[in-house]
Amino acid sequence: MASVPAAARPLPRPQVQTGDAVRLVAFAGLALYSAMHWAAMLRPAPRGELLLLLVVALAGGLALNAAAGMEPRARRLAVTAGTAVLLLAVIPLAAGVPLTYLRPDHWDDLAVAVANAVAELPGIRVPYRGTDAWVRIVLLGCGGLLLAAAAILALRPRPRPMGAAVLVAVLVAVLYAVPVVQRGPDHPWLDGAVFAVLLGGLLLGDRLRGRGAAPAAGLALMAVLGGALLAARVDGGTPWIDYESLAEKLQGGASETFSWNHTYKPLTWSRDGLELARVTSRRPLYLKTTNLQRFDGVDWVRASVRKGGDLTDTEQSRRHPEWLQQIHVSIKGLKTPLFLGAGTTLSISQSTKDVEPVAPGTFEVTGKPLRRGDSYDAEVYYPRPSTEELHRVSAFAPGYPDFVSPDLVVGVPGAGGASRPVDLHVAPWGSGRVDEATFGSDSQPVNATTLVAGTTLAEAYALAQELRAGSADAADYIDHVIARVQRGARYTETPPSPGGLTPLNAFLFRDHAGYCQHFAGATALLLRLGGVPARVVSGFAPGSTSGDQHIIRDLDAHSWVEAYFPRLGWVTFDPTPADSPAREQLTDTEDTGAAATPNATAASKNSGAVLPRAAGASADATGATTAAAQRSDGGTWRPFAVAGGLVAAIAALLLVLPGVLHRRRIARSADPELEELRLALVRSGRPPEPTLTLQRLERLLGGSTYVRALRLSRYGTGSAGPTPHDRRVLRRELREGLGLGGWLRAHWALPPTIAELRDALRRPPGRPYIG
């Protein structure tokens, strides 16, 4: 047996790199924390999908780490490229891209879909609750790519330059900061402190050694907590750098004005995201500028202004003092003579312009209009009843107050040969009276059926009576009306020309296509014709949220419906589909009482106002709720299954195929057993000296049973050679000190054999009890 010269270099045996494990744990914690924030940019939040993407990113990073030690270079490049390709396939699938889009002949369709979604990103609001599946896919995919890039850099083998660690921090910070900037957390200082601790653990955790580690960690924690406390103190009402004012100056004082009467013509006004106002309130609100209280037979228009006198507009529920609140409005790019309110505005105070009340529940300026720089406070009454409460009030309320009588009047054009519309006075729901109209103050009332016959209102009136006959109460009737308005209807800003029909007749009975004016106008008309006081409201949807401030832009201009309920007041309903620009991304809100059931309306889910159930919920939320249902009722398992299959393919690529190639290679050598051992040492980073003996190697590996069995079998002691157990022991010895990818690298160095797999299956599950 040969001996090893004294000058020979001993077999390298790296020490266990505990810093690698610390780095893996630190990165996983920070990435998970940031990924959950990224998930909050979507509603419903796809936390399961982001968790899957994180697992895929970690698996890809570890696989590439292991591949970095493979030899020869061609094989290392092949495995690296294969892993990268699999990552690029798994991430889109986990994000929700249909599998067919990954086929090469569908790549052009995939590119177009992604490009269209990316073009929409600058205009969306966070959290996104719209119906465009590709916007969701792009947001999820971007999060997955950030996670994958960060994992590959964070888990790369040593040596790692500090620049790589900084780049990892930047990638994860983007994953965390983008959703935080868009929508601040509930507890910003605590949230930021946790992120700072996790980021510090990633950057410095594997660099702290010895006795100085604990004091350094303690000082870092003290600095983070001190910073959080100090930040809360210095965060005043006035910003140190007023970037909003700078942005407004760059806009050159741009402002917009709006005409609120309905015309139903194609929308052509420009919308570029100009900020119009900021509203501070407890929760998002539909912001009203005016009520379109009169239907003249064709259009909804503002009623004649009634100044002075009794301006009572609503009852107030004594059971819900929280429905009464104070809001603060700051005007930015809006120029308007009308004050922005919500629900019923009761008073205006602290205004920079003179205030004059007008009917009903709205206010105007007496001089120059409101414009950039103006602000005021408003006291508003904004009911948010639950579904059960609406049905209870509808069943037991004594009747409607007198001041809602104008909201039960419908103009009937051409009735009885009159030259101008005749007012039809619809009997209130539950009153037991009949609908009637008069041609003048001294004429006899005319039955509504006789009056409406042969007019443009006849078809809508008949529809209202049909829906009313099938409704149990007023709340049920509202459900049925919204369902009928939304049935088969699509949102479009270029509706077909009505031709010889009125716009609302064309929308309801022929085209079923229009925008918010059509949906709101048709709903309010049918409600009035059925005896429910209703009106169209013009203003702005709630907009995006930043803390307790709600940012209103020109994209948010909108129309909706208010219906009156005795003892509660005017309740907001929005029948416009969720894919309209003003509604598809309306902000989330707290539910203050409305039942969170599958029957909740799409309006309550998307509007920021907690609204009662509407029968049109399924039609209104066709995109949003259907997508959510697919995810919860079986759509989610597919990306998980595909991703699991691809991960299994990576494992097979890294374990099975190398074993086959390895055994073919050593079979061609003169001494297969020694060649296998030499390759294992080389691949694990321990190239042996030419003069190294088996006996010396056995001692260097700490008494390796594998090397001992091989030595004894070769030198005539009757040993049968290494057993499958010996191979497993050698693999553990080879992976010692190899860091994060040690397990994969050891299996690459000494691939498992079929005999090993059989032996592993035959082994008992645990050590038997021997007393």
Write the layout of secondary structure elements.
Elements: H1 18-39, H2 47-67, H3 73-95, H4 107-120, H5 133-154, H6 162-182, H7 188-204, H8 213-234, H9 243-250, E1 275-280, E2 287-292, E3 294-295, E4 300-301, E5 324-331, E6 344-349, E7 355-358, E8 362-365, E9 375-381, H10 387-396, E10 409-412, E11 422-425, E12 436-437, E13 446-447, H11 448-452, H12 458-469, H13 474-486, E14 490-491, H14 503-511, E15 513-514, H15 516-529, E16 534-540, E17 544-546, E18 549-553, E19 557-565, E20 569-573, H16 602-606, H17 617-620, H18 622-635, H19 637-667, H20 672-683, H21 694-700, H22 705-714, H23 724-735, H24 742-749, H25 754-762
Parallel strand pairs: 14-15
Antiparallel strand pairs: 1-5, 1-18, 2-16, 3-4, 5-9, 6-9, 7-8, 10-11, 11-12, 12-13, 16-19, 17-18, 19-20
Task: Please explain how this structure is put together.
The chain has 771 residues and is α+β, with helices and mostly antiparallel strands. Among the domains are: 201 residues, no CATH class; 188 residues, no CATH class; 94 residues, no CATH class. It has 25 helices and 20 strands. The strands form six sheets. It has a six-stranded antiparallel sheet with strand order 6-9-5-1-18-17, with no helix packed on it. Strands 2-16-19-20 form a four-stranded antiparallel sheet. Strands 10-11-12-13 form a four-stranded antiparallel sheet. Strand 3 and strand 4 form a beta hairpin. Helix 21 packs antiparallel against helix 22. The radius of gyration is 36 Å and the shape is elongated.
